[in-house]
Amino acid sequence: MSPKKRQNDSETGKKNKKEKRGELAVINSDMRDQAVQKCMTDAWQRKESYSNGNIHLDCEPFPHCQITHFLQNESFVESLRAELLQLNFNSKSNDLYKFQQSDDLRERKEHHVSQIRSVIFGEFREWLSEVLQVDLEATVDMSCAKYEYTDVLLCHDDELEGRRVAFILYLVPPWDVNDGGTLDLFSTDEHCQPVTVVKSLLPCWNSLVFFEVSPISFHQVAEVLSEEKCRLSLSGWFHGPSLPRPSRYIEPPVPRHTHIPRDESLLFEWVNEMYLDPRYQARVQQEFEDNSEICLPSFLQEEKLRQVRSALQSSEIQWERRGRPNKRCYGCAVMQSFPTCVQECWELLSSEPFFILLSNLTGLSLHYLCINEDESEDGKSETENRDGEENTQAGGSSADVDASSAEKKDKGPPTCVGELRRWAHGDYTLLHDCVKREYALDLQLHMGCAGWKSEFGGFTSYIAHDEDEELLTVYPEDNSLALVYRDKDTLKFIKHINNNSSSHLSSQNTTAFYDFSFNYYE
Fold it and tell me: Cα–Cα distance between 205 and 34 in angstroms, integer?
């Protein structure tokens, strides 16, 4: 081969290598500037803000940073997005979120995925370790998330063992605040509990956000409101030594009360007469004992229902937001502002005659006049043992029965706790570990939700503790009384009400539906 030919081949090879290198994931050179690193380190440590070119770091409400134009090569970013969209996505939905997620990207062999993985957990991790002065591990923890219309990730802090810094690389089309899907950051109170959104970061093409995972790093992905756009991102965590965590905050319990004395005539004024028939009550009780739940349609008399429904939409009632956003978000009525008919309905559900009615409908012992058969048998056995009619072995059983009876005595009389709630777009409750787990009868009496559909959210989901399996779903149904007996290993949440509900509520000339929510304890 002639020297000239070899020279041409050599130059062509160099050119091809340069082109190949151009397709690699290369981090924006601004990040590697030592002055930038020092300023960011100082800002992070002093809890200040710092901006320089395409880097903005802010330590309020908690340390976080947004880097625009994270990768230099736009064609690589485009190819990466196309490659990610070809992945297999799994729909994920529970109390906290609804979105689509890819499989773990730790072992994926696709060219652009493996390149971005190497860059983020290699060069970028080393740079970040130096900036934050934290020894971040090379452990790969990354996946791809796809948020479409009505998808959401509610308030949480990201804390799991080993997570130190979270990151999100956005691969979105031109995005506007009206599209939703912002990364919302929460302020916290003296108990390290989230209070309200104080900053919202808009997803931006080829931008990377990272923040320190800590006891106060509460954030959420706001509901996506665009029906055309897809909020695609790569996200994950750098692992390292966890920050100290304060002791868990336990909310003060809501006071419970025993039944209030009212005349039996209250039932005949308010409740559908069908449910006051002893024979019908017996059939309801049998079904409830078989299933531990039942829904009783048309529960209130029509005239009373009409009065309460009208009063609930009046401006007379004062509504307060029930939060903390990592546990719940909905409107709760102030009792002192109840109109007369709403107050009467509340008293109905708290009254002695209603405790007796619930006992007859469920077989539970919510009144001393309504002792279930098991307790009667225990009582008989205890009496027989005291009379010396049992043998010595049964004498041991007598001690157990005495202990059981003493426990029931210590529990005191049946009690209840309740609230009147308003449910609108964006409202929800979440599972959390601060709830006292105990046996209870849950009651929900829905109003103003005619024509409600499951795809709107707003339904109550019961699940087994530490399991994802759904045991029961209670859907909002106008003037239907839902009764569910919940044991110690059963938890519940109300699914986030999404934007699909807005047009339906508007067609009903309202912005919300309502429920009386009570818990009764034997």
Answer: 26
Grouping H, G, I as helix, E, B as strand and the rest as coil, residue 442 is: strand
**Which tokens is 72 given?**
């230099």
Give the range among 7-11, 63-67, 260-264 with minimum mean pLDDT.
7-11
Give phi and psi for 314, each to the nearest 5.
-80, 160
Instruction: Kindly give, in sequence order, each residue whose CB lies less than 8 Å from that of residue 143, ignoring residues fewer than 6 positions away.
Output: 101, 102, 103, 104, 105, 234, 235, 236
Model pLDDT for residues 304-342, shown as the tens digit of each residue: 999 999 999 999 999 999 989 999 999 999 999 999 999
Residue 39 in tokens: 């300023």
> Is there a contact between 385 and 398 (Cβ–Cβ < 8 Å)?
yes
- Compute the chain's Rg from CA coordinates: 30
Average pLDDT on 254-279 reads: 97
In three-state secondary structure terms, 346 is helix
Determine the Cα–Cα distance for residues 423 and 193; give it in Å rounded to an integer. 23
User: Cα–Cα distance between 347 and 267 in angstroms, integer?
Assistant: 11
Asked if 88 and 234 count as a contact pair (C-beta separation under 8 A), the reply is: no
Do the Cβ atoms of 210 and 135 come closer than 8 Å? no
Q: Give the integer Cα–Cα distance in Å for 306 and 191.
A: 43
Residue 461: its H or E element? strand 460-464
Find residue 65's DSSP bridge partners.
57, 210
Give the CA count within 13 Å in the CB-facing half-sphere of 283.
8
Give the residues across from 508 on adjacent strands: none
Please, which pLDDT band fits residue 303 given cuts at 50, 70 and 90?
very high
Does residue 403 have a pLDDT over 80?
A: no
Say if residues 236 and 164 touch (Cβ distance below 8 Å): no
Residues 416-433 pLDDT 10s: 999 999 999 999 999 987
Closest CA to 502 of 492, 513, 494: 513
- For residue 329, which of 516, 194, 144 has the smallest C-alpha distance? 194
* pLDDT, tens digit (0-9, with 9 covering 90-100), for 32-42: 788 888 888 88
